[in-house]
Amino acid sequence: MAPKLKQREEREKTVLIGLVELYLITGKPIGSNTLKEHGFDHISSATIRNYFAKLENQGFLEQQHTSGGRIPTPLAYKYYAQHHFNAADVDPKDIELLRKELNKDTREIARYLQNAAELLSQMTQSAIFLSSPRFDQDLILNIKLVSIDKERYLCVLVTDFGLVHTEILYSPKKLSSFSLKRIEKYFHFRMTGLERPKLNAYEDEIAAEFYNEILLRHIVDYSNFSAEDIYKTGFSKLLKFSEFQDASVLAKGLSLFEDTQYMRHLLEECAEAVDLRFWIGDELGRGTAHTSIIAVPYFIHGKPVGAIALLGPMRMPYPKIFGILRAFSAILSEMLTRNLYKYKITYRQPKTREIGLQTDSTVYLDQAQHLLLEDKR
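Structure tokens predicted for Heat-inducible transcription repressor HrcA:
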């Protein structure tokens, strides 16, 4: 390539980067005079317009009105994101906040991860997805019952790691609120071995049945670990962006947010790549032309075990987000490694199994060994 041609193309791409950065700030179409006033006063307006025309022909820019300015296309955002892929500039205040909030010693790993996702959502004003392995040595701390109607009851299990599981249980006879309290005390007795509550004959029968049913379901759910646990939060924050004021755009974004299987696929792809990944606009499919997802893996003892993904509008400050995500991953990885070592917690990653007529029950028994059902400390 001739030196002059190469220099011209470099100037065109510099103009493209400048336009994208200005559009990220203003959200308004950028004209040649506007760009000239923002760092490009060494280039004439006519030359900038020529660059605009060529970039438009290449698919990087589009013009909504004949006399209006240009706006970036998904292709422009992809170029811009790739150009800043290795950005490491993070505001020291963001680093300080991450260290302050994430630097915690705790064995409540599930609650810690949920709080970490909430923090990242608040910092980036975006929806957050986080995949996680299954952590062992957990135990049930509490079991609560809530009446739904005269036959169904919502059972809520809270574990030592901060996980909350729910089950629907059935009773042929209606249970009063006093009966439910006594049955909860029975659960506590079974888990701790402390004083047994006084129950009538039916309460005693249904309490034992409920308890056995709950634990068996919990064992099956714990042992049948075929996909990563997913934590997600912050979808309502997208309403602050003008792009998501359109109901159809919001609905398509929501379809991504609620499709756990699809999100798992993206997070697995990121973890396997062992590096930051991004998908912009039509790369996500499903007509999500105004949406972007950025993901980064995190590690335990240097091994990738999950990923954190951010869902937001295509018009987002990619260099800043890249820097925050990488810093978040580094600190989260450090804290998880430290806490798992300190509290002697192990973890498992999902293994897919073929469904057949015969199953090896020893697999489930082996996995259940790590599940502490009752707290008798």
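The chain has three domains: 1-72, 92-134+229-343, 140-224.
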